[in-house]
Amino acid sequence: MRKRLIDLRGDEEPILDIASYGRTPVPLTRRQLTQITLTVRRAPEVMVKVSGGARTVGGVEQHLAYIGRDGEVGLRTDSGEVLGGEGVARAITADWNLDMDSNRGLTERSIRQRQSPKLVHNLIFSMPSGTSPKALMAAVQKLANNEWALKHRYVMALHTDSGHPHVHVVLLARDIDGNRLNIRKADLRSWRVQFAENLRELGVTANATERAVRGLSRTRKNDGIYRAAQRQDSTHLRKRWSQLAKEVAQGEVAMEPGSHTVKQTWDAVVEGWRLVANKLRAAGEHEHAGQIRSFLGSMPPPMTEKEQLMRSKPEAKRLQPGDIDRERTLE
């Protein structure tokens, strides 16, 4: 069976390949060492996500009005202009000819399904609190110029009034030749890497690695669930906890189907890091090897969402050791 590839993806070859990387004689490049150092030191991770996308002209205008705070926050266009004031959202959709694009996007399938294709993609680029907003905006601008200049129309807005600075980007789904952009995971991965590199060039410590490579097994929740959890008002989490409480009361807590996969992935990540550490130690890079050992020692154990709930709730203390055999799975 082919071993799973765990890597720290850049725009070159994988940095961490658990199947063969630690056994190859090829030395690590300086860039790879930098990436490893950022990861094991837990440098701030950039975040890039698709937050949605409107299918109607009215929906696009509504989102533009939201990110522009109804004209109070400047919207920076792909030509470098900063637009604001009343009516700016409608002016942008008119400039983009979205009425025509909306009709052109209709197909027999979309009509049958009563759903038009997205006119725009809504993206968010963010960093933790304390990051320079000016550097953040400059990093996103450089990425946008590299990826979409002279191909896709877009506008962006910087928000600094929340817990962390972030940039909203509204990207026209069709390019100037009429081809649609379908955003894939590989695109988001590439954008994360570029975003982090752009920030580092501006003197901001930033990293872009897979969650699994950092030893994080927690699955990401959609925006609604995440925001509700932050407010301690999550229906999803209440349902999950209610089900767990019933299982505890019945004296039998069922393991989640994905728990074995979570453990396998965690083991693969640890194995990969150890291979790289051994290679660095053999090459005389004792400091880097030591950093990896410390990183492995601080990695959280692999846990499913149910297991995290058990550890976070006082009621979970009533569980008997045999209900979920964590000692065995962590060996």
Oligomer: single chain
Biggest sheet: strand arrangement: 1-4-6-5-2-3
What is the general shape?
globular
Average per-residue pLDDT, rounded, comes to 78
CATH architecture label of the largest domain: 2-Layer Sandwich
CATH class of the largest domain: Alpha Beta
The tally of domains stands at 2
Share in helix: 40-55%
| Class from helix and strand fractions | alpha+beta
CATH topology of the largest domain: BirA Bifunctional Protein, domain 2
- Span of the ends, CA to CA: 23 Å
What is the compact description of this entry?
This protein is an alpha+beta fold. The chain has helices at 30-40, 57-67, 88-95, 98-104, 108-113, 133-148, 185-201, 223-230, 235-250, 259-282, 286-298, 305-312, 326-329; strands spanning 47-52, 75-77, 82-83, 120-126, 154-159, 166-172.
